[in-house]
Automatic annotation (TrEMBL):
Organism: Amphimedon queenslandica
UniProt-listed PANTHER family: ANKYRIN REPEAT PROTEIN, GH09064P
InterPro entries: Ankyrin_rpt, Ankyrin_rpt-contain_sf
One Pfam family named in its UniProt record: Ank_2
Lineage, uppermost ranks: Eukaryota, Metazoa, Porifera, Demospongiae, Heteroscleromorpha
Name of the protein in its database record: Uncharacterized protein
Keywords assigned by UniProt, alphabetized: ANK repeat, Repeat
Superkingdom of the source species: Eukaryota
Length: 68
């Protein structure tokens, strides 16, 4: 289930960063949305200027790798 409204609220109202760091890994919300097949969240995230569509995670993968 996609949670677009929650993601929007966290980014726009709470000020959450699009880059997520947890357990020593670096990935972005875009990586996670692509991995989960959350198209509406992917579309929302890439509309944000701070979204780096070429960001690499700790494995060297860009979000497109997970979308494929």
């Amino acid at each position: 289930k996609e949670h677009l409204e929650i993601v929007k609220h966290l980014i726009e109202s709470v000020g959450c960063d699009i880059i997520v760091r947890e357990d020593g890994t670096v990935s972005t919300l875009l990586h996670k949305a692509c991995y989960n097949g959350s198209l509406s969240i992917v579309e929302y995230l890439i509309s944000k200027p701070q979204c780096d569509i070429e960001a690499k995670d700790n494995k060297g993968n860009q979000p497109l790798h997970y979308a494929a």
